[in-house]
Design goal:
Two copies of one chain form a homodimer.
Chain A: E1 2-7, H1 16-28, E2 32-38, H2 40-50, E3 59-63, H3 74-80, H4 85-95, E4 102-105, H5 109-120, E5 130-132, E6 134-136, E7 142-146, H6 156-174, E8 180-184, H7 195-206, E9 211-216, E10 228-230, H8 233-259, H9 262-270, H10 272-282, E11 290-293, E12 298-301, H11 308-323, H12 326-335
Parallel strand pairs in A: 1-2, 1-4, 2-3, 4-12, 7-10, 8-9, 8-10
Antiparallel strand pairs in A: 5-11, 6-7, 11-12
Chain lengths: 343, 343
């Protein structure tokens, strides 16, 4: 049995999306058990409303009366709001009686990172945990970005560790055999970029277990030529948000322009299914959340606007990470790095 | 008469696009004079081929036998290839007998920046010149990004200067009255980001002549809520290339998907004009190039894949910068900054 705790109070559609998503994951995986944290009466009410049958032996509820607000200062929030749904989940993860493998939350990103770093702790050898979201590429594949904001001040050693951890993640969870790893840079030539990139480049090339293919410019993220891009958390954040933002803005503009003329509306009617598929394809709700790689337990951060299906994806991601034994593999691989690239 | 020098050998379609673009700009502006640099026989041949009538009194050709390759190391290239089309243009700009206001080139970006910094020089008070390209927003407006790669290692003072220079540029060249300036960051709250952003935020708020509206996440670049975004050259480069890359990849995917089914093709036929307009709207060829703000003369870098129309836009950009007296206004505004934010 793989046990995962779900923080039910965090995200625009919580707790309904979290609870519905949990029920769907539970019925899909007979060897999955879930613990839901949050206001117990509210959770029970929702469970009664949905009338979805579930195995009570695999579904536990742990009451947590308060909620961490996205605007709260993360370090204060995790220190002062111990009875929040997130911190209750973290406590169960760290020292619950029955072993819990992972945590899923769609709440405050800052509090999630702080809790991961300060309460859950790191795997052996990890300098700093890092986010690794996955995006669909334009040729039907996927691409991972590590890091997208857990650490804004980084050294070359961080980038090497990101490459090691995220390569394993792509292999174990998404079946990408020998992930092609690129370094995000302002040009493809080896000598491009600032000191961080210039120092990281040769290190990445020498790292065992990392299939480094060179620098990548941000315009090629969705080309399908790369499986993983490593970067500092600041530029990774700029990269993922501009990629998501541009595709959303474009779809919005297309929609507006279509409604401007009856002829276009007619054309769009014929293409309705295609547009729907396009939208589904671009919608990050249909993919998993952002994994915080390098924590001693599996930590998955879902989108703040998560619908039930997205929560299900996040739970399944945590489940597959545990099933693949990712944590042990990360520790083993980091041990093989030169001493100066380990914690 | 406003005189501008055009480097005709640099860019995938050079020199044809450069020469054709120059002719179009010349006929549109009676008070514009151009100097073309590059292999004279080739230029003369193209001028004869096009058979476009032009006023020879406003069109000069200066022979330059060599070309700087995009792969060459910039500092070596500008030192060793003095007879290249770019460096000949730079020499005319710096110490030609008749006063030349600006330079347009679509060649090596690195050599362009190095030449601007080391040969053309800076305006009084400028710490470092910075690129400021312009993108179309999704509501029909424009947004500027400063910097997109001229400087990858920056201090808060750079960002303040970018805000001052680019605000003036948007006002003088694009008629944006009181540009709303944002700081590119990983969240909108004031305390977000690394030390650079945290220090720059209050400085930007205090800067006279800068209408600072706070942090912006990259996903909102095209929203139309901002006229200018300031950032370090690394993340600005990531931002512009991922924005351009995503829209191009999406259009490519749409096209491919449309061709997959006859029904969709039929629908697309009805929407042909819309798709064409969409493509025109997104195509950066239809906008000007990237201005290197802060140089003592006007410097405009066009796209490497520039077509003639893009070259025309770049020349007109340089023309309007000179017409608006931008350089003097930048020097005046920088003088008003506190001493520690000036060169």
């Amino acid at each position: 049995m793989i046990r995962i705790v779900v923080d039910c109070f965090g995200g625009d559609r919580s707790p309904a999306a979290q609870i519905d998503g949990a029920l769907a994951a539970l019925s899909a995986h007979p060897d999955l058990a879930l613990v839901l944290t949050g206001d117990e009466p509210t959770i029970r009410r929702r469970l009664a409303e949905t009338e979805t049958p579930y195995d009570p032996a695999r579904m536990e509820i742990v009451h947590a009366p308060s909620v961490i607000d996205p605007g709260e200062k993360p370090t204060d929030a995790i220190r002062l709001k111990r009875d929040s749904s997130l911190m209750t989940a973290v406590r169960l993860l760290s020292d619950g009686e029955e072993e819990i493998a992972g945590l899923v939350s769609c709440g405050s990103t800052g509090a999630f990172v702080a809790a991961g770093l300060l309460r859950v702790g790191r795997l052996r050898g990890v300098i700093r945990p890092a986010f690794c979201p996955i995006l669909p590429t334009m040729n039907g594949g996927i691409v991972g970005i590590c890091d997208t904001g857990a650490n804004v001040d980084v050294t070359p050693a961080y980038l090497v560790q990101y490459a090691v951890m995220a390569s394993l993640y792509l292999r174990e969870v998404y079946g990408v055999e020998n992930p092609r790893v690129a370094l995000l840079n302002i040009g493809v030539e080896e000598e491009k970029g600032d000191d961080l990139r210039k120092t990281a480049y040769p290190l990445l090339r020498q790292t065992p277990g990392v299939h480094f293919v060179g620098n990548m410019e941000s315009r090629d993220l969705l080309s399908g030529d790369y499986d993983l891009v490593v970067c500092d958390g600041f530029s990774g954040n700029v990269l993922i948000k501009s990629t998501e933002g541009t595709s959303l803005e474009m779809l919005k503009k297309l929609k507006k322009d279509i409604y401007a003329r009856p002829l276009y509306k007619m054309g769009a009617l014929l293409m309705r299914r295609m547009f729907k598929e396009e939208q589904t394809y671009m919608d990050y709700q249909n993919y998993g959340g952002s994994v915080l790689l390098g924590c001693s337990k599996v930590m998955v951060k879902g989108h703040g606007s998560a619908k039930a299906s997205h929560v299900t994806h996040c739970i399944e991601q945590a489940y597959r990470m545990q099933l693949g034994g990712l944590s042990a593999k990360i520790e083993q691989s980091l041990e093989n790095l030169p001493q100066e690239l380990q914690k």
